[in-house]
Design a protein that fits this description.
This protein has helices spanning 6-11, 26-33, 39-61, 76-82, 91-101, 112-124, 130-153, 158-163, 179-186, 201-205, 212-230, 238-255, 259-277, 282-286. It contains 14 helices and no strands. The chain has one domain (24-275). α5 packs antiparallel against α6 and α7 packs parallel to α9. With 287 residues, it is mostly helical.
Length: 287
Amino acid sequence: MAENYYFLVASLPEIDFDEPGECPTFPEFAQGVKEHLSPADILLFEKVQLTIDVVNLAVLMEERDTPFTEGGLYDKMTLLEGLHSVDLFPPYIQKVIEAWRSDSSIFHNITWEDQLNWLFYEAMEKVKNGFLQKWFSFNLTLNNLLAVMSCSEFNIPIERRMTERIENTCAQAVITRNEAAEAIVKSSSPDFSLSPIFPLASQILSLDRDDLENFERTVDGMRWEWLDEETRLNYFDIDFILSYGLKLRILDRWKKLTPLAGKERLQSLLQSLESACEGLSLQEVTR
């Protein structure tokens, strides 16, 4: 039987994507919520936290000058120690770290972050919670679609992006090989044959990307709406708690996007784009 958390849910402030009001950050929420959850539900909530650890690990492995993100299962010191003592992590993360230590990629020449995410999402296909299974599948397909859109926008052939490491943060690899990923990689149709699998595909592909901030906000709004719809009838159980945490992560991201941060992000994006396209021959760009 699923646990119900009537008092916990009733105590949570209401949050709205456009007008979030006063609400906790995800790290604050994660720090306090687990003491109210059953042992089985704590393990489920930690799957959400692991998405932060994957990013933080990738930053350390790739030696990127990126701020540490709070709210994961592990602090920075523990992650650094874990790079040399992998027993701390789940098997799929251990596998990537062992490959990193031996300088032998699991998937040829894609970033360590992509490799970590690849095995993470494959592991989440087996998580024993229907809501999380669907969320990770939805978010994976959405991210893969955004990746291939970026490849198209910046004239990076998808075949090259999948076989060569290109330093472009907005054109990551298409990861995993589930039904949706296979369709994206193999299909030549305008919607990558995704519409029957992923109904939002046509809507996302039709969005204007000239205003990158507005585009990303629209996409995050779709994530928010998906979370609302999936928990509409599950208001007091762990699915609602998980959804609430995921929404806080979305809000945390936008709280950080001040005008100055946006300007710095744009400059970084332009620099990475120049790096990504450097060396592409006319034949590679137009094939």
